[in-house]
């Protein structure tokens, strides 16, 4: 099976899991659940749950208790998109070619839909405790419970103010107060806003499968390299990209006076760093001595993409 | 020690716990943490952590692992206040005599501060696992871990779309779409928006102390009675209250054409139901055969207050 076929298959599985854990709208609270469903079913690529499951498989993980975590990380991603798109932050009207949640449901319901998804992500991840296989004896079950607890802590550490939310906070604060975007702040934002949840996906997949701590650390660094390379590539494509392939206007960053990796370091250094980080991520995976072909292809497809 | 002295003492302890778990602002994400600190230190009464700890003590609970839960429930309460006050929802400029978070920090940072508090509530409650006493042997520790897991599930179920968030969703949806506020919707809102977190406080305090399931169920019903009685009293005071004692304008509900328990059922029935529910809550506590004097006084002070 070729890479893109395998990716489609894994994304379809993630989609199925996500549907299973997305509540159906009903009752007086139904309107917010409609907004949740609208956002979740907007056709993302489900990269984070795909990465999580691929690592889980790579370490021989077995059992359905990975599934609530797959849904949870996608809920976290979706809540962040809904809130980022609000007029109070980026004020984006379209995402993935569809109207954003607040445009359809209003700012109040969209804010609550984001809150609902974040709360739902905890509630859902906690369901992993119900899916711990019963055939491992008391000691085996307690060991799996400890893995779930560890994975919960990693996921919500990376989602919170020490991770994704910290990156978003630094970004919004700089924009709203007109603070200078220097190299340190930009790296902090790239590292946290994008990389933190990719790190969480790689780490939780490993932890749930019982991977050793040393490997979890290597995967965290892999996620960091990948996330930063992905963001640098984003900044590069806004300068060198093909509008037709990208499906969006090129040059908008410089037109908006936006400070990016390219404006701070120049195109040549940006391309060099993106290549280095991408290679570093792949080399880290190689060092684990596992069958990581799919993950390597996936990471390369993110960091070396043309669109 | 009289009731009000005991309440002050317990509230001061809750305040101390809260301070211990509130992160100090620093770094690029510092602005959002300043907004978090501003909201948390605005001088609430810390009723939910006080209730939680009182139940824990009532069941002979021992150990510090209750403390992260005390902070977590107050973080949840504060996140809900910050988001409710946003222009996208109630657009309130003042709370507890201070400017609301979004007035001071802007809507974007306030939205992120709410998100931060919700995520932080989960991160903080998870710290209970670190505080499980080590002197109970492996079996004892695993039993306490199971209590923490159970309490986590209750807390975030009651905070989410099946609890507080559901109530807020029904309220905001009715207002934004101009839906009719009938008895069923109003009861749903009172039950969930206010009562759910009081239920959570009572239930988690009991679960963490190892109370039997039957008692936890009675405490859930106690919280429901208390929360609804509290809300009905709120509606009553807006008609009959003493402006001086309340420290706010009376009659604003009817001036704003707001549908309340009093407008739907009449003042007499509202007062009757509030008394019945208040008595029911106290009787439920009596039925537990524990030393519940403080909790009874506290509940009566909420449901029978004059301000």
Task: Give the tags.
homodimer; 307 residues; mainly alpha; Farnesyl Diphosphate Synthase; two-stranded antiparallel sheet; 15 helices; 2 strands
Summarize this entry quickly:
Two copies of one chain form a homodimer. Chain A is mostly helical and 307 residues long.
Outline the structure in words.
Two copies of one chain form a homodimer. The first copy, chain A, is an all-alpha fold and 307 residues long. Chain A has one domain (3-302): Farnesyl Diphosphate Synthase (Orthogonal Bundle), CATH 1.10.600. Chain A has 15 helices and two strands. A two-stranded antiparallel sheet of chain A has the order 1-2. In chain A, β1 (94-95) and β2 form a beta hairpin. The longest helix of chain A is centred in the C-terminal third of the chain and has 28 residues, at 213-240. The relative contact order of chain A is 0.11. At the A-B interface, α2, α6, α7, α8 and α9 of A face α2, α6, α7, α8 and α9 of B.
Structural class of chain A: mainly alpha
Number of domains of chain A: 1
Per the CATH scheme, the topology name of chain A is: Farnesyl Diphosphate Synthase
How widely separated are the two ends of chain A? 23 Å
Name the average pLDDT of chain A.
Answer: 94
- Specify the CATH class of chain A: Mainly Alpha
Q: Using CB atoms under 8 Å apart, which protein chain pair has the greatest interface? A: A-B, 54 and 55 residues
Task: Sum up the overall morphology of chain A in one term.
Answer: globular
* DSSP strand content of chain A: under 5%
Q: Tell me roughly what share of residues is in helical segments of chain A.
A: over 70%
Largest beta-sheet details of chain A: 2 strands, antiparallel
Number of strands of chain A: 2
Order of helices and strands of chain A: HHHHEEHHHHHHHHHHH
- The CATH superfamily of chain A is identified as Farnesyl Diphosphate Synthase
CATH-derived architecture of chain A: Orthogonal Bundle
The value of Rg of chain A in angstroms is: 19 Å
- Total of helices of chain A: 15
Poorly predicted spans of chain A: none
Oligomer: homodimer
- Order of neighbouring strands in the sheet with most strands of chain A: 1-2
């Amino acid at each position: 099976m070729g890479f893109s076929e395998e990716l489609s298959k894994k994304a379809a599985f993630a989609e199925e899991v996500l549907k299973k854990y997305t509540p159906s709208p009903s009752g007086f609270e139904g309107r917010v659940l409609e907004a949740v469903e609208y956002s979740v079913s907007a056709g993302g690529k489900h990269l984070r749950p795909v990465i999580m499951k691929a690592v889980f498989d790579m370490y021989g993980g077995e059992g359905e208790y990975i599934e609530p975590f797959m849904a949870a990380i996608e809920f976290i991603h979706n809540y962040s998109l809904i809130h980022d798109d609000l007029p109070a932050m980026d004020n984006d009207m379209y995402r993935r070619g569809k109207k954003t949640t607040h445009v359809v449901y209003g700012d109040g319901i969209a804010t609550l839909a984001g809150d609902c998804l974040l709360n739902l992500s905890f509630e859902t991840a906690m369901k992993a405790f119900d899916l711990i296989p019963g055939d491992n004896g008391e000691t085996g079950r307690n060991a799996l419970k400890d893995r779930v607890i560890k994975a919960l802590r990693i996921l919500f550490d990376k989602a919170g103010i020490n991770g994704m939310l910290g990156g978003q906070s630094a970004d919004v604060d700089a924009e709203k107060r007109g603070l200078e975007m220097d190299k340190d702040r930009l790296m902090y934002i790239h590292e946290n806003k994008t990389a933190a949840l990719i790190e969480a996906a790689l780490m939780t997949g490993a932890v749930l499968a019982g991977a050793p701590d040393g490997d979890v650390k290597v995967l965290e660094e892999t996620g960091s390299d990948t996330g930063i390379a992905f963001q640098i590539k984003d900044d590069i494509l806004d300068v060198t990209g093909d509008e037709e392939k990208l499906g969006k206007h090129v040059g908008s960053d410089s037109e908006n006076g936006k400070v990016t990796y390219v404006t701070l370091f120049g195109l040549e250094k940006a391309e060099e760093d993106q290549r280095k980080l991408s290679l570093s991520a792949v080399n880290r995976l190689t060092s684990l001595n596992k069958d990581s072909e799919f993950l390597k292809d996936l990471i390369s497809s993110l960091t070396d993409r043309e669109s």
